[in-house]
Write a structure and sequence with these properties.
The longest helix is centred in the C-terminal third of the chain and has 35 residues, at about 480-515. α4 crosses α6 and α11 crosses α15 (about 480-515). Helices cover about 50% and strands about 20% of the residues. It has about 525 residues and is an alpha+beta fold. It is elongated and about 105 Å long. A hairpin with a 2-residue loop joins β13 and β14 (about 265-270). It has three domains: about 5-55 and about 350-515, Multidrug efflux transporter AcrB transmembrane domain (Multidrug efflux transporter AcrB transmembrane fold), CATH 1.20.1640; about 65-140, Hypothetical Protein, Haloacid Dehalogenase-like Hydrolase, Chain: A, domain 2; about 200-320, Gyrase A, domain 2, CATH 3.30.1360.200. The protein has a four-stranded antiparallel sheet. The protein has a four-stranded antiparallel sheet with strand order 3-4-6-5. Strands 12-9-15-16 form a four-stranded antiparallel sheet.
Length: about 525
């Protein structure tokens, strides 16, 4: 006897109600949906750049400067190590991607080779009998460092953009050193460009107060001259003589927030335990000295230490506007970019093109549904009407799933939905044709329907699962538009399986129990 367990009835009702609840916010305006009570779903489907317009940025990371900086660090480590060991040398510096120098005493080659090995395990050391040294990173190490730089850059870019509240940005690696950013709905990308154009490398240094006129007087070793945002009497950027030694690094910051002090905008920051300890030691031992705060090789503030700061909290002053404190706080919270980013390409997609795409997609979906509904009704009569109910329900479930997942719908995604509409009735066609065949063989209505569903099930599962595997592979190995197509296709396959096997079967069984027909209208 054809029957449906109570748990299946409950499952069908729960899934239908859930899909309807999650899909319904898409019928409201964004402002109305955001104003719904917190216990109600209010998420809507996010439209991609090609549907609602927005900004497109292609960035390139200056990886070579990072490699050179690491080589300079290796030079500093080598110099310090040779001095500690009291080993004479000449010509220490960077040549291409190698550190080169010569020993005054060629008999100490083995001692120097052992000293350099202590710096890192991924160094190639070449030394001649005459004391000529060439030190460089291994090819594998260089490749890994380049990959690490681009991956760190993507993560920092993502954090910075997320902090601005931009909905569903798409941030992808493109090639070895490029980052593709799509910002749907963003019409003016200037603030984003400003945020991404800053490396945001924050360091704390002491002022070299022995240099009376920075940039004019000779600069002692271990001191550097950096500009600031302040202007001198001639309207030129004020320069500071800064000790090169970094007392505290911005890497130990764990929070930064815009605030006010004496009704002036400032940035309040907080260190982690390691940074707080270093900050406390530096301020405790140097009360009265000027502590320069350097951001991307510019002095943004140079306050005098009035007293020891032991709790790891501090403020940055500098005549900021409120927006500047918000942006600086955002940059410090997101962390420093490992490499400078250069904008190679910038495009703004107008909303008109997206509106045309949405309209074309809606027309395609409606026409596809109309053709399928007419065909199913004309071919299978009452059973075709039941399949059409399942088809409409399937579309609601797709919209509900996309909303719940906060997926981004793109033009290829609409293509996936249109394809799903055509495929959604395949299972019902297989079942109904099987039922017809059983009816021609002389079976009664109940046994024909029971046999039709049982015998078509294997074919339905095989065809849908193979397509689902293809969609998963497209999502795993594709990018951008391909992923959008794969997401809607995969969701459509799962929902169509549910509506075809469970919902349509439930409707047929309900009709059988109420009508108890002698023959099937199929």
């Amino acid at each position: 006897m054809v029957q449906i367990p109570r748990w299946q009835v409950i499952l069908i009702l729960v899934v239908l109600l859930t899909g309807l609840v999650f899909a319904s916010p898409n019928l409201l305006k964004r402002e109305t949906a955001d104003g719904l009570p917190g216990w109600l779903p209010s998420d809507q489907i996010n439209l991609g750049l090609d549907l609602q317009g927005g900004s497109y940025l292609l960035l390139e990371a200056d990886i070579e400067s990072v490699i050179r900086e690491q080589m300079e660090n290796l030079v500093d480590s080598t110099r310090a190590g040779l001095r500690r060991a009291k080993i004479g040398y000449t010509g220490l510096g960077v040549s291409d991607e190698s550190v080169v120098f010569s020993l005054r005493d060629a008999t100490r080659v083995d001692e120097v080779r052992q000293l350099i090995r202590e710096f890192s395990n991924d160094l190639l050391i070449s030394a001649g009998d005459d004391g000529e040294f060439e030190v460089r990173f291994t090819d594998q190490s260089l490749a890994q460092r380049r990959i690490s730089v681009i991956e760190q850059s993507i993560e920092v870019v993502r954090r910075r953009i997320d902090e601005t509240g931009t909905r569903e940005p798409s941030i992808q690696r493109q090639g070895d050193r490029r980052i593709l950013i799509q910002l749907p709905g963003l019409r003016d990308p200037e603030r984003i460009k400003s945020l991404l154009g800053q490396t945001a490398k924050l360091t704390f240094h002491f002022l070299d107060e022995t240099v009376q006129r920075p940039g004019v007087n000779p600069t002692p070793a271990g001191t550097m001259i950096l500009p600031s945002d302040e202007l001198d009497a001639n309207g030129e950027p004020l320069k500071y003589a800064i000790k090169k030694r970094v007392m505290v690094s911005g890497e130990t910051l764990i929070d930064a927030q815009p605030s006010f002090q004496d009704n002036l905008p400032v940035v309040a920051f907080r260190f982690d335990p390691v940074g707080a300890k270093r900050f406390a030691k530096a301020t405790q031992e140097n009360v009265g000295r000027i502590f320069a705060i350097v951001l991307d090789e510019r002095v943004i503030s140079a306050p005098r230490i009035r007293s020891a700061i032991l709790d790891g909290n501090g403020i940055i002053t500098g005549g900021f506007a409120v927006q500047e404190t918000q942006d600086l706080s955002l940059l410090l919270r997101a962390g420093a970019l490992p490499a400078k980013l250069t904008i190679l390409e910038e495009r703004t997609v107008g909303p008109g093109l997206g509106a045309d795409s949405v309209r074309a997609g809606q027309i395609a979906c409606l026409l596809g549904m109309v053709f399928v509904i007419v065909f199913m009704t004309a071919t299978y009569g009452l059973f075709g009407v039941m399949a059409n109910v399942a088809l409409i329900t399937n579309l609601v479930l797709i919209l509900g799933a996309l909303s719940a997942m906060q997926a981004t719908l793109t033009l290829p995604g609409i293509a996936g939905i249109v394809l799903t509409i055509g495929m959604a009735v395949d299972a019902n066609v297989l079942i109904f044709e099987r039922v017809r065949e059983e009816t021609r063989n002389g079976r009664g209505p109940v046994t024909a329907i029971d046999a039709g569903y049982r015998r078509a099930m294997t074919t339905i599962l095989d065809s849908n699962l193979t397509t689902l595997f293809a969609a998963i592979l497209l999502f795993a190995f594709g990018s951008g538009p391909v992923k959008g197509f794969a997401v809607t296709l995969a969701i459509g396959l799962v929902t169509s399986m549910f509506t075809a096997i469970m919902l349509t079967r439930g409707l047929v069984i309900l009709w059988l129990r109420r009508r108890r027909p002698q023959e099937l209208p199929i």
